[in-house]
């Protein structure tokens, strides 16, 4: 278990190191003379402000924001029409999926590994006074707290039945405490996509982004093969994560909380697309 956690941390640090090399000229500045305690207090403040911003943001939504919500809801409804068939298809393929893929998906999306990896990542950035890594950790922590609260409440509030228990995707038991009715949205998807999107935003190179998103998609896809989530559980978990990470990142950028905070050009434009008999989500870099 510890070896797997260490391996994940090494991957994250290596990824951020590549990103730092790409933006060396942009981030050149005098060495930070603040103490470790001062930096930790500053980061904690920015984390709390980021969380506050995301939870209060709906009060400031404008017409275009509600239009986006409507589009997402429409897309979710359209995708839900193939939930039962999609789940049957994925479950049927599960015996042919390599065990290492399923194991990696389960581990990467689990809260224990996720938060240990985050702690290691932030600790490295704090004690080396690496502002880029500290900022990335603040982005991940703020976003994961917000998405975690939302997905936990949603699971109970919606009470959607999980696949593989003899229930259809349209069966709900609102405010249920039963585990088999805690399907929507996918928690593993929320955690893995939150981290992947936050890290990918530190890169300008499209191929680097694509590689990180590919790794981040392992957990969501593995949940489909395991038959514990519907397609819409995974899709909406991903949409939630991306929206929250983008909101926190924009907040950190606008408030100039850190040097080198991801620019608007690094955001991804996500759209639902309906073409003939195909339904999908497209991201434009």
TrEMBL record:
SUPFAM superfamilies in the record, alphabetically? Answer: Acid phosphatase/Vanadium-dependent haloperoxidase
Q: So which residues are the signal peptide here?
A: 1-20
Among InterPro entries, the record links this protein to: PAP2/HPO (IPR000326), PAP2/HPO_sf (IPR036938)
Name all Phosphatidic acid phosphatase type 2/haloperoxidase domain ranges.
Answer: 140-249
Q: Which UniProt keywords apply?
A: Signal
- Domain of life, source organism: Bacteria
What is the recorded name of this protein? Phosphatase PAP2 family protein
Q: Which organism is it from?
A: Flavivirga algicola
């Amino acid at each position: 278990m510890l070896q797997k956690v260490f391996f994940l941390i090494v991957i994250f640090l290596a990824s951020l190191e590549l990103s730092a090399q790409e933006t060396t000229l942009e981030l050149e500045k005098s060495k930070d003379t603040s103490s470790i305690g001062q930096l930790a207090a500053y980061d904690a403040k920015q984390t709390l402000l980021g969380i506050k911003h995301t939870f209060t943001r709906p009060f400031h939504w404008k017409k275009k924001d509600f239009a986006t919500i409507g589009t997402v809801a429409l897309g979710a409804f359209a995708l839900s029409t193939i939930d039962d068939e999609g789940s049957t298809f994925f479950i049927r393929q599960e015996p042919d999926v390599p065990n290492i893929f399923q194991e990696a998906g389960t581990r990467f999306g689990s809260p224990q590994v996720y938060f240990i990896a985050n702690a290691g990542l932030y600790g490295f950035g704090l004690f080396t006074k690496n502002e880029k890594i500290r900022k990335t950790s603040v982005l991940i922590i703020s976003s994961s707290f917000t998405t975690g609260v939302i997905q936990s409440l949603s699971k109970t509030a919606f009470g959607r039945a999980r696949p593989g228990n003899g229930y259809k995707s349209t069966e709900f038991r609102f405010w249920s405490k039963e585990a088999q009715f805690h399907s929507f949205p996918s928690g593993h998807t929320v955690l893995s996509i939150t981290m992947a999107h936050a890290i990918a935003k530190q890169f300008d190179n499209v191929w680097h982004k694509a590689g990180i998103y590919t790794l981040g998609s392992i957990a969501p896809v593995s949940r489909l093969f395991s038959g514990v989530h519907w397609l819409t559980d995974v899709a909406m978990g991903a949409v939630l994560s991306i929206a929250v990470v983008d909101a926190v990142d924009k907040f950190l950028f606008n408030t100039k909380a850190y040097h080198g905070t991801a620019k608007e050009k690094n955001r991804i434009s996500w759209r639902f697309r309906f073409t003939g008999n195909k339904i999908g989500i497209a991201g434009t870099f």
